[in-house]
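Researcher: We plan to redesign the surface later, but first we want a full-length starting point. Tokens attached.
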């Protein structure tokens, strides 16, 4: 087991962009080659994080963690229902998301 003194966060993902209420993260898809991360939340939003772009990174005042902000957010992609899964399209140029609204979005 790890003690609290050994636990620390290296990155904090902040889905808040000021235009919508943020839900609880429900699923994600990480493209290691393109270095992007998609997170779907409980309010139907999908946020994209560019993990290679320093412009989305903000160091914390304590210097212990890095905060990443999304480069893009699809607001209410699944109305206001949970995003339950995200995966890549077969050609790798986009994503599919599945939500509790019964829809598959590309």
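Model: Full-length starting sequence:
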């Amino acid at each position: 087991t790890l003690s609290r003194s050994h636990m620390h966060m290296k990155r904090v993902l902040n889905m808040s962009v000021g235009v919508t209420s943020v839900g609880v993260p429900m699923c994600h898809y990480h493209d290691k080659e393109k270095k992007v991360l998609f997170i779907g939340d409980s309010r139907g939003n999908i946020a994209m994080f560019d993990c290679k772009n320093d412009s989305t990174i903000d160091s914390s005042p304590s210097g212990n963690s890095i905060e990443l902000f999304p480069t893009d957010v699809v607001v209410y992609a699944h109305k206001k229902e949970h995003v339950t899964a995200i995966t890549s399209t077969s050609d790798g140029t986009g994503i599919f998301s599945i939500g509790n609204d019964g829809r598959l979005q590309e």
